What does this fold into?
Amino acid sequence: MSLFADPLQAFFAPRGVVVVGASTDPTKLGYGVARNLLEGGFPGAVHLVNPKGGRLLGRPLHPTVEAAPDPVDLAVILIPAPAVPPVLEACGRRGIRAAIVASGGFRETGRQGTELEAACVEIARRHGMRLMGPNCIGLVDTHLPLDTTFLPPPGPPAGQVAFITHSGALAAAVIDWARGQGFGFSRLVSLGNQADVNETDILPVVAADAHTRAIAMYLESVGAGRRFVETGRTVARQKPMVALKVGRTEAGQQAAASHTGALAGQERAFEAAFRRAGVLRAEKVQQMFQWAEALARLPLPRGNRVLILTNAGGPGVTAADAIAAEGLRLARLTAQTRQLLREILPPAASLHNPVDMLASASPEQYAQALRLGLDDPGVDMVMVILPPPPMFSAGAVARAMIPLIQTADKPVVVVPMGDPLIAEAVAHLRAAGVPEYRFPEDAASALGALHRRARWLATAEQPPLQPAGKNAAAAARRMLDADTTPAGAWLPPKTVRALLTAYGIPTPQEAVAHSAPEAAAAAEAMGFPVALKVVSPDIAHKSDAGGVTLGLESAGAVAAAYDEMMARLQAAFPQARLAGALVQQMAPEGQEVIVGAVRDPLFGPLVMFGSGGVEVEGLGDVAFALAPLTAADREHLLESTWAGRKLAGFRNLPPADRPAVEEVLARLAQLAADFPALAEIEINPLRVLPEGRGALALDVRARLG
Amino acid sequence: MSLFADPLQAFFAPRGVVVVGASTDPTKLGYGVARNLLEGGFPGAVHLVNPKGGRLLGRPLHPTVEAAPDPVDLAVILIPAPAVPPVLEACGRRGIRAAIVASGGFRETGRQGTELEAACVEIARRHGMRLMGPNCIGLVDTHLPLDTTFLPPPGPPAGQVAFITHSGALAAAVIDWARGQGFGFSRLVSLGNQADVNETDILPVVAADAHTRAIAMYLESVGAGRRFVETGRTVARQKPMVALKVGRTEAGQQAAASHTGALAGQERAFEAAFRRAGVLRAEKVQQMFQWAEALARLPLPRGNRVLILTNAGGPGVTAADAIAAEGLRLARLTAQTRQLLREILPPAASLHNPVDMLASASPEQYAQALRLGLDDPGVDMVMVILPPPPMFSAGAVARAMIPLIQTADKPVVVVPMGDPLIAEAVAHLRAAGVPEYRFPEDAASALGALHRRARWLATAEQPPLQPAGKNAAAAARRMLDADTTPAGAWLPPKTVRALLTAYGIPTPQEAVAHSAPEAAAAAEAMGFPVALKVVSPDIAHKSDAGGVTLGLESAGAVAAAYDEMMARLQAAFPQARLAGALVQQMAPEGQEVIVGAVRDPLFGPLVMFGSGGVEVEGLGDVAFALAPLTAADREHLLESTWAGRKLAGFRNLPPADRPAVEEVLARLAQLAADFPALAEIEINPLRVLPEGRGALALDVRARLG
It folds into this structure.
């Protein structure tokens, strides 16, 4: 029986491994797996299976899985696809609960392969076995060590970053590339076709590793959207994660009925999901690893203020630009720090950030200035620029700074610019675990990632907002159950209005009054201005007939208008039945925004906020978040759009009721989350009144999926 | 006397060089200059000057410049700042027409240094001498060769890219870095304080070099904006240019009076200037050189369609994303190409772009697929992805492809992914002059630069648009001369209207009529609908008095309204003098955009186009171009904004008269270019009518600087 409560744990901690398909031919992949396991230092048992028998690398080749001695917790299978199911069956019977199928020839080759893959999954399920692959290169733990891949040695350098990947080729390339970059890996998992184990399954197992301080992920999609988000959010509270999500081109996205639907899409959903899950999204392979390394090695900054130390102006300006492009700020040094810098630097040095210590800057000056910068309370992070110093060796500068960087509670990154002239500095920095970059832009990018990680952690414990309470869903459910609109069609306006009302989202009020005092009271209750419209089955064109009065601003005016209207109509249309008048709240002037929700096929309900009106799709001033919202999501929606920022007022545009918008966002998100059947709902526009006066959903439409 | 028609030419082709401040102390920079000149292979004469006398590197140290023998066309001066002016004087007297002052201690150190620098310039001017620096590291020509810098050997590797830089430290770092990247330089110029020679002066000299096939520039600003643009535009017709412009942070930008002014700024102006000049703007140091190398080495593509060849899916998807992010497209292979690929690749290979040849892809398969791709008429460029092939050496793959790449008339870039496993491939590719990158993102970025270069060249000969002719300026000049508005204040609406009229930009027409037939004729001439407004010195509130009639749609309606209005007013106000009625064109419904122009302090008149209305500043859907516009600039304004794109119609928004907008843009730009005194002019909104019906400037304001 297995030692492991969860068979997934067996992948990274097997007492023994059996290799099925171990080959004596060194050009075969089955040889590579045996070699990497036997020669890679794996401390557990390794058993090799090949029906031909014989010996390989000093070990016997057992004819079958059954014939291999105990202990075996993990099987690595690299035999032709059609032969895999019986071997899995044998593994299952033996009590093996973790298997890596490295072989190709499954789903990726067509219908027959797909059926074979389904058969493998069925066998695994039956035996309570977890299956990695097929069509993958397996996994590596550099610290145990354990290497189930067939890649030629040397294996990946040891480090603190785990890598989970949907592409085996990328893993092979990155392992090779990392060596020259001074990067290392703690664990590496190639998931192949993900017939069973996917990125979400393996993520907590990888994250639980004590050697892993950051996790990088190459993702082509994710298995189950919300489960990925929940798992990610739990992991991210402990360890930083960076993902490169590829496959952005969304060919054939169908025309959506609402603006929200048209603007949503896989990429928007992934962005919202990563934000919620605390996964930093990288744009490039190299960036992913540069961020992960910085996150693994450096303390997080308390704010976004960066000090730049340089020995030349040009690189300093380049760094300042890069800092600004990352949304970070140049730190403002205190007068005391500037005075102390003045004492150690030549008179022509620039003491304002970027601090230019001039070409003559010595190792001691670099170190002293760095210490002063770290001590300044206005500095959250430091970037040290190190073009080859003309009078000193860059290596000596690096050596002088390393002890300070290693003990600092603020992140410090170093930019040795060059190649042979800074090689010694780079070697020292790498050996000391200090992130270093060839150009300021990459260093700024890494600092930006540290800052975003710190900001995410500050909001990591926020619960979803549920402002409408639990009864709202029950009331809305009754309404929707009573509705007979066919799926896919727009719900009747009355139902949509009632839905909003159940969730406490204000729409313009209306009431029928049968007398002047009733009309006045109704108007008083809903707030001014109001419109008065005759209710009569006999008057078709109310406006033309004088049956509409707009813009009534007081109870008195409403009462007078009621009496006047009735008298006038009675005189003009003596035959008409007059059933009273509709009192309708008129929306005061205000800003207009769009608030909507759609159901994403992968991640479920997604909320949109932005600039409304007819041109919302063209201007694209919108942002998305997963429903229900956290306070941080809501902040993001409002801060990342012009529509949200201008609620504070802009030039001659008066401030609007931002809290009312926050409330509507949270309530609509809750509604969308409560009703998975809701395909789209869109308030366009939401009229946002001046401060303290609320917001009104002027036009709403919704449909079920 | 100098050999050179233009003394600037002497910098790169001196028959002899004199080094003033040559030092026998190897730790001094003055030693470095002498060493690099003498040991760097410079074929001309090198004379060393040091008042102490003696010998250095086998050469005599002459006591003065005068004492050095002929020929001397270039002086390199590296002595303390206060001693520089008399040496320059001596150089001038001797007929030396080109001097590099490498010494620091000038403007960068304060007032005294600034005065010293001015004295140097005065001396140089007096002698017709050009001065490079001070505070620079000099120049290098790797092919002559000539190296006037003090940088430690080895000097920069020879290549085809020239580098002009405002930062000497960056030059030093980049020279060191380039070696490891396989990059080389043809010429390198560090300009220092630019007391005399600036980037615009030296650009044509550098570009004239036969070894230079592309030019990279690190710029902190430019000297004279328009001269840079004109010079750049001339150079760019022959050789590609890439610039990294730093110093984006614009602290203290003053609040501008118009939206155009508020949205303009140094960065917008630089972008517009680079676009006109044909300079590709890079965002990062590394990107600048990667683009420059690709531009120097590869043919330009005929279109934007890229074929991706890969041996694995993941890297192929990553490449496809990167291609899309660059605005390039995946090529669609012809059925014939797909058929031929099918014959050479395994059945499971993917024959749709990205073409995945699978992990088994051999050197022959790579080469054959590349040949088929290059032959396909639907392919403009090729990116070959090369993760370490499991069964073959990456080097063999590279070797198989190189002859095809070298003879192709389409650009091919290669992405060997890894480090040791692809080192041989990289070495072969570099030796063959084939651009190679570690990751698809950088390769896509280089292809994007090639494509933009090709597009720019296609419009390089476009003259500025002058649709209003030359008489417009004369008419406008008379108007502005007659105007007495103080500088900085808004011009009276009547003057602004007249200005627009002079330039043929339509504003709503109006005319005073004194009879019903006159009113009808005027309306007929300007088009319907029109408004009729009484003209009377005695009626203040025309609307309240019944003196305004809107929306008249025919000549008959206008005549009737005229008579009726006069009769009514005569009856109501028997004492009022009725001087007739103003017939005003009413703008029909249409799209609204903003068109404006401001005067940039560096680049002069700059035109803006975008989404108008009150929120133009917040949404920032605007683009800028230098005035007067070329057809390509105008296209850019319309295509890079949503305001421009939606003129074609969008959803239920009908198409608008785009040619009318084009006309207004060109005319307003001409106006702005004709009147440098115009600080700002802004049409907001320009109402764009349905197709064929024109555009009307509904609200315009302008002020002189």
Observations:
- DSSP finds 23 helices and 29 strands in chain B.
- The domain at 299-458 of chain B is CATH 3.40.50.261 (Rossmann fold).
- The mean pLDDT of chain B is 93.
